Every structure is written in structure tokens, then in C-alpha cells.
Amino acid sequence: MNARSLAFTLLISGACLLTEGCHAPGKPTVQAESARPDHVLDFKTLYRQNCAACHGENGKNGATISLADPVYLAFAGVDTIQRITASGVPGTSMPPFGKGAGGMLTDQQIAVIANGTIRTWGAPVGITPLPYASAGPADVTKGAASYSTFCARCHGPDGIGIKGNEMHTGSIVDPAYLALVSDQYLRSTIVVGRPELGMPDWRSDLSPPESRAMTNEEVTNVVAWLASHRTATPGQPYQQSSLGITSGDKYE
Hints:
Elements lengths: L2 H15 L25 H8 L1 H4 L14 H18 L19 H15 L18 H11 L1 H4 L19 H4 L4 H10 L23 H12 L25
Helix pairs in contact: 2-5, 4-5, 6-10, 9-10
């Protein structure tokens, strides 16, 4: 290398050291570095990665209960949301997200999701729903009567739904459906409604003389009536198939 080439090389090397655009081969830039998954504490990021698939992109219009619902947030409260997010709901499609229960999120991340949900879609002052969990014994017979009063006009007298030009609802007593949801899910749905689907909350929108809110006892009894339609093995018997699956087999 002649003197002119050496001088040019040294000049370029010096310029690189004075700028952010030149780095040693293979060394990542500051911009390229990303936080470890367990260090992410941004609510929007955590919600999008862990919750949006079931609860909807913006907390609603998902496959399950809307979180962007002030009535539900007042009903559940931050402690319940945090507990369910961390531990999941056994027997349902709600998995545990907390590391202590086999998930991938830290306690701090779980708290960010719970508090961020309340902060983002907050509960309005003045709404005091029924207790989150039911208390006391349930009466299936009384539940059938309360169902007839408050629910039958939309879900049909037997709960199998209504199909017509002005209303189309599916069965809420189908054993396959009931196998996918818990009693608490049924209670939550009755108390907070499904506003995105036009379903009113426990305060009802019936005409007189039934234009009153459901009582805690009535909600508890309706849940018991719905749960009485569950079967131990919904969907059976299964047919013999080329995969060798026979009656009684289940997918894991």
C-alpha cells in the first residue's frame, strides 16, 4: 500500500469513529437492540401480544367478553382481572399468563395489563353491579322462571335461540357451548351483557312490569338453570374414522 492509499484509509477510519453510522462488523446498533420479553412494560404491547386475539384488538368485538366495557370493569375490578390474567380459568380456554402458573409474564407485567385495562377503558362513577361471584345456593326451578322473564324473548323459551328476520340468536343451552364456558362466564355475561351484540346488562331493558334490574338471586338461579343443560361428554358418540378415533376418544 503506497503512502496515498494509507492516508486515505486512515482518514476514512477516523471519520467512522466520529459518527454513529460505522460499527465493527457484526456489532448491533443501539437501534437494533430490543428489550427482553420479560422487560416489556408497555400496556399496548402486552395487550396486543397476549389479549387481543380473544378479547379484540381494541378490547371489544373479540370471541369472548369485551374488556373495553365500563360495566364489566366495574363488575370485575382490577384485582379480579389481575388474578384471572395470572392464573387463567381452569376448564375454559382462558390460559394462565403468569410465570407462577406456567405462563410467560412476570407479576409486574400482569399488573401492567390489569391496571392498564382499567386505566384505558375505565369504569364510570355511579355503576355498582352485582357481586362478581355468586353466593348462596341456587335453585334450578326458580332459574327457569327467571330465564322466562328476562331472557326468553331473545334466546327463545327453551334457550335454543331464535331465527327470524328481526332477530337471530344461537342456542345457549347447547352442551358443546356450555362445555367451553364456566359458570362464572355465564354469570359475567348475564350481569354485564354483550353491548356489542345488543344484549343488555343485568339492569334489563324490558317493558313494565318487568322493567327492573335482576337480583343477585335471579342471576345465580339462571346460571344454575343454564348449567343444568351440561352433559358429561358433549358431542359423543364419535364416529370411527380413518385415524382410528373411536367413541370415547378425545383430542388432547
